[in-house]
Specification:
This protein is mainly alpha-helical. Helix content is 64%, strand content 0%. α1 crosses α2. The N and C termini lie far apart (29 Å).
Length: 47
């Protein structure tokens, strides 16, 4: 599953690799990556 947005094949591949390493579906991996990115963007000083 690749979201209907312009994501490079390289970036999509990194998410696929993460999904495989964590034994998750691609959908779960995208959800986690997006949620983590949003959390980091909303709280940049907590990193």
């Amino acid at each position: 599953m690749r979201p209907n947005i312009d994501i490079s094949h390289t970036l999509n591949g990194r998410v696929k690799d993460y999904a495989e390493q964590e034994d998750k579906s691609l959908e779960e991996a995208y959800r986690e990556v997006i949620e983590a990115g949003l959390e980091a963007a909303e709280h940049p000083d907590e990193a």
